Amino acid sequence: MAKYSEKFKFKVVQDYLSGPLGYTLTAKKHGIVTSQLKRWVRSYKEFGRNGLSVKKKKQFYSVQFKLDVLNFMKQTGASYQDTAIQFKMNNLSLIANWNSKFLKEGIEGLQEKAKGRPSMSKKPKLTSKKQEKIMSREDQLERENELLRLEVAYLKKLKAFRENPDAFLEKHKQSLRSNLKKRDSD
Fold this sequence. Notes:
By secondary structure, this protein is mostly helical. It has three domains: 1-54; 57-111; 136-185. It contains nine helices and no strands. The chain has helices spanning 6-18, 23-30, 34-47, 63-76, 80-86, 92-105, 128-134, 137-163, 165-185. The N and C termini lie far apart (71 Å).
């Protein structure tokens, strides 16, 4: 739901256009900000009553269109309001959102993303706990032993590296070279 109805916007714009009060006094009279009134008046002058209406249906814009809008704004130095009018849009905050997304994420930020929760697959995936329950006790112990062996081997290498980093690196360079020679000969 929009913050202000189309009737209210039209009433305020008509009050400004027909009355002797300026932007500031008209805005204060109706309890809105001056910049908002200026945007409404400009939209009304450009698009008529349609410029004040809130779109009921969401409009989708292509990535190329978004890039064209941002490129126009950058090349001409136009404001969000001027750019929106040039491209016959009455939602300048949409252009501001495109600009910030483009600056943060690049072109990927301008692409439409799937909304909502992803659909569930036909077969639920087994969680790791369920997989462990399915494994036999013996398989679980073998898995645990393997993980402990890997941890011990890692800690030994870490200790050796801390004691003498140069010798450790030299040793691994030699084994890497010998492995490469074996691959080349195959």
